Amino acid sequence: MAEILDDLCALARAAGAVEKQIFEGDFTAEIKQDGSPVTIADQKAEEMIVKKLAELAPQIPFLGEESVAAGTIPDISGGTYWCVDPLDGTKEFVGGGGEFTVNIALMENFIPVLGVIYLPMKDVLYAAAGRNHVFMQETGTRDKTPLTVRKPPEEGLTVIESRRHGNPAAIQRFVSGYKVAALAARSSSLKFCAIAEGVADLYPRLAPTCEWDTAAGDAILRAAGGHVLALDGSPLRYGKTEEQFLNPFFAACSDALKDSIAAAAKGS
């Protein structure tokens, strides 16, 4: 699996380069049936990713945000498939913000086992292929810095919330039982990466998401020793074809907070 990870990292960088070029030029956004925006960058990036993944592993089905929006629903009943958001953070992209990412995940038995997240505007990449193989590559280097979640600091938690899809009142209720030192806002799947990197502790997501929004971040956070949990404390479930791949509300957290999530949800 580590061998294919290098190919996926290169693919994410290539797709990100396309998105960066479009972001820095003139583009327009359209509104999909679900009310979310889409741009030519989303579409071109997914076309590139679909083509390359078909070359790398033609036997593995492809589940992608834009192909699903176009009505292409693959048979993923075997549990092994690609789960891709070619441009996570399209609202950020359209709004002129730079925190959009390329997300590529491989699912096995409906569990994200491999993930790549690339931030084109800062040339930062996060990747994982299991518990002992998770790293980030920072701007201007291909050095691999290992990632691991941290223990909550004595001064309190750093809680991550969405920059453009926030629910501040609900989040305040959710974290009311914790000692919180700081609230920080990030866009796209970078919220998972902040916990995996050990600079944040908890990300309550109390607004809608789809599986392609979370799969790559889930793979990276799991590999770094963290968790993505439904609000009953169970691992976030994938392969929800009948639910149109919509996720329930969830919380991403470091290992130390795993057993507190269900209680926090009840308290909110």
Strand and helix map with partners:
Layout: H1 2-23, E1 29-31, E2 37-39, H2 40-56, E3 62-64, H3 65-69, E4 81-88, H4 90-94, E5 101-108, E6 111-119, E7 124-128, E8 134-137, E9 145-146, E10 157-162, H5 168-174, E11 180-186, H6 190-196, E12 202-205, H7 211-223, E13 227-230, E14 250-253, H8 261-267
Parallel strand pairs: 3-4, 10-11
Antiparallel strand pairs: 1-2, 4-5, 5-6, 6-7, 7-8, 8-9, 12-14, 13-14
Helix pairs in contact: 1-2, 6-7
Describe the structure.
The chain is an alpha+beta fold. It has 2 domains: 2-146, Fructose-1,6-Bisphosphatase, subunit A, domain 1 (Fructose-1,6-Bisphosphatase, Chain A, domain 1, 2-Layer Sandwich), CATH 3.30.540; 157-267, D-Maltodextrin-Binding Protein, domain 2 (3-Layer(aba) Sandwich). It is built from 8 helices and 14 strands. A 7-stranded mixed β-sheet has the order 3-4-5-6-7-8-9, with helices on both faces. β3, α3 (65-69) and β4 (81-88) form a beta-alpha-beta unit. The radius of gyration is 17 Å and the shape is globular.
